[in-house]
Specification:
With 80 residues, the chain is of the alpha+beta class. It has a single domain, classed as BolA-like (GMP Synthetase, Chain A, domain 3). It contains 2 helices and 3 strands, in the order H-E-E-H-E. It has a 3-stranded mixed β-sheet. Strand 2, helix 2 and strand 3 form a beta-alpha-beta unit. The protein is globular and about 35 Å long.
Length: 80
């Protein structure tokens, strides 16, 4: 089952309440999204650490072929 952009945003926002989050549906199919997450907690972390934290916030929604979210192009960074 596909996910809505607002559902993805809500999961990320719950883990990163002060983050600036932008979700874009890349294919219009509810399965392929891009997300930009800007949060102060990322400062001092490398990109892999940042992205792992966001994937953890998705609570398994991307796990395996039966996951609700098929693809997420993720951009993470600390605020400028």
């Amino acid at each position: 089952m596909a996910m809505e952009a607002h559902d993805i945003e809500a999961l990320i926002q719950a883990a990163f309440p002060d983050a600036k989050i932008t979700i874009t549906d890349l294919a219009g199919d509810g399965n392929h999204y891009a997300a930009e997450v800007i949060d102060e907690s990322f400062r001092g972390q490398n990109r892999v650490q940042q992205q792992r934290a966001v994937y953890a916030a998705l609570q398994g929604k991307m796990d395996g072929p039966a996951g609700a979210l098929h693809a997420l192009a993720l951009t993470t960074k600390a605020p400028a």
